[in-house]
Amino acid sequence: xxxxxxxxxxxxxxxxxxxxxxxxxxxxxxxxxxxxxxxxxxxxxxxxxxxxxxxxxxxxxxxxxxxxxxxxxxxxxxxxxxxxxxxxxxxxxxxxxxxxxxxxxxxxxxxxxxxxxxxxxxxxxxxxxxxxxxxxxxxxxxxxxxxxxxxxxxxxxxxxxxxxxxxxxxxxxxxxxxxxxxxxxxxxxxxxxxxxxxxxxxxxxxxxxxxxxxxxxxxxxxxxxxxxxxxxxxxxxxxxxxxxxxxxxxxxxxxxxxxxxxxxxxxxxxxxxxxxxxxxxxxxxxxxxxxxxxxxxxxxxxxxxxxxxxxxxxxxxxxxxxxxxxxxxxxxxxxxxxxxxxxxxxxxxxxxxxxxxxxxxxxxxxxxxxxxxxxxxxxxxxxxxxxxxxxxxxxxxxxxxxx
Length: 403
What we know:
The structure is a single chain. By secondary structure, the protein is α/β, with parallel strands linked by helices. It is built from ten helices and 17 strands. It has helices at about 60-70, 110-140, 185-195, 205-210, 255-265, 270-275, 285-305, 325-330, 370-385, 390-400, and strands spanning about 10-20, 20-30, 35-45, 50, 55, 80-85, 95-100, 145-155, 160, 170-185, 200-205, 225-230, 235-240, 245-250, 315-320, 345-350, 360. The strands form four sheets. The protein has a six-stranded mixed β-sheet, sandwiched between helices. A hairpin with a 4-residue loop joins β12 and β13 (about 235-240). The longest helix is centred in the N-terminal third of the chain and has 27 residues, at about 110-140. The chain starts with 10 loop residues before the first strand and ends with a helix. Residues about 1-5 have low confidence and may be disordered.
């Protein structure tokens, strides 16, 4: 929800995408309401840094990030204070809440004090609901979770959509919020990274929150879309309805699981496997086993996100596991067999990188690093929105709260 009330000064920021396979780092500059890519580097993770989807060696992660960091800044006389980053973890939880708030004095204009009260009321009710989601996901009632991202996905007054409620009159205020949590011990790793690099953490942006930003300024921006990111060790499913994220889920299965299985049975190298994996007559047994597990997780995740609503027929796939045999399989999944329904057959959408409002060398981007590209787009929004009082109140709530 955009509301910029004055020009934001030029700002440089480093974006860090900590994946289970690679660490990717981009040096960007925000200027004149545009994001400019100055430098981009990536480095493969040591296999001991991350086991499964969780960091197992903080020292190893820090060393890898430092190496990529220095390469990004190599020979550049640039000082950067702020970083934006994500972190690999399978325990990332979203919880949404819709609130109807009835104002007592509907003839008076909403001021910052009342808006603060409304936001706090909405967020506190959302936190109560979130505890139920966290217990369902983790099995623990008292697990420490940190609220890292909160987004007001919809706000209207007496049925009219607004981006900034201040100054409006009206009786009924409807607000929809989406909160994202990670375990407190995972959050502590992020603060350790910031301290080690001597940088200020401007924001934490999970892939599940940033990936839909890829469709900003495209014909699909406000459509219903199912996003599927098949990464190295996990797969993320995100559902967007009318341009708003309604929920996401993770499958603890990634393309590396298939590659390891093929290596064990065939003796082929990783390079050979990647080169041949989409050929129709190769690795049939291994692909069949992989897709069977994928389908089970795919269906369970869709049901968790959608409940009884329709599956979006427009599908956007990214990640190293975006292969033709996977696309063909997804396209032919019989949703009705699992009491899921879509108005039309699933169809894959493509984007033109020239449509993406990022200045710089876009040729470096491919299916494996769309995550950091989406983080760049999200970064532009984060910096742009800093003067929106609604966003400021939500940010203040995030800084003060955890479960």
